[in-house]
Amino acid sequence: MYDLIVIGGGAAGVFAAISAKAANLSAKVALLEKSAVLLAKVRVSGGGRCNVTHSCFDPALLIQNYPRGSKELRGPFNRFQPRDTVEWFESRGVPLKTEGDGRIFPVSDQSSSIIDALLNEAKKLGVEIFFRQKIDEITRTGLGFHVGSFATKKVLLATGSSAAGHEWAKNLGHSIQPPVPSLFTFNVPTSPLKELSGIAVENVELKIKGSSFMQKGPLLITHFGFSGPAALKLSAWGARFLNEHEYKVDLVLNWLPSFSQAEILDALCEVKKESPQKTLISENLFKLPKNLWKTLVGKEKRLNDFSLKELQGFAEKLHGDVYKADGKTTHKEEFVTCGGVTLKEVDFQTMESKICPGLFFAGEILDIDGVTGGFNFQNAWTTGFIAGTSAIKESK
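^ that's the sequence the OP posted. Answer follows.
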């Protein structure tokens, strides 16, 4: 009989198993993984560098990066937050560094540094690990649970967005918010900007027309449409709305969010007055990338030949350029979903089910998802730590 069986060998599951064993070295803790490897998503995240967390150390600000789960995570982040994550890895010989945008990576720039630290800790503490586990069902017993052929007092589900994990949770009494994609890039097949693939704009405002969803930040023009933080964050906050509209929406792009439309028009009129013989293409007065500015202007003609109506139209375009999105693109290895176990059914002081005593949850199986930047891993570390330690303390 195990004290705890953790199902799922991703970041949340491995950290939960380690945390459980660290809370009570004499406890019998097993980790079951369906594949032949642990931490597969950690290995490929951040382009193989592993964006382990983010340097947002104020829980009140940290929760603002979670489209779903922000309210529920406030308490957990006061117990285990990015500062604790940094301390955990650095105390185990993995120095971390913070980049300009706040993302935290291992100094080695190798995800293997994070994986090795986790696996070494699991081995040192004596977590039993079983690979290639096919679990047909999880059933309640008088003493706890049967997980396939294993008997255990407590079960911790850390199965990510896996349909099997959702099915086990449902069979044990939970309701599931339907999983839909989050954190994806927009396909814009009719975009006149696709030839500019690779150009990045430092700060834009991107919104979904006919909705309240809007994000500011860097935008990357790609051969298929739009990517970069502004697009990814918009996809996360608007995930359900976009799914309902089958990813066919109008995107409104404000290329110059620091200026009002009136200020843009005033600047255009002023440059026309000062340099009437110059072309508008040559007068890149807002310092947008050169080829982007050229494409947006379109016409190679002198400023003096632009009518006021044309300048008004151009100011309107710079302030609200409309593109038709039709579909999305996800990078399979870093795929994130929203949806999962309904949050009101979980006690976030312990991560234990309110419906099925002895059942705990950690990570993406819950209806929690963060924007890009290390926030999804932080959710895994935090909920894994609390679920693992709580499950074992409750067993004493």
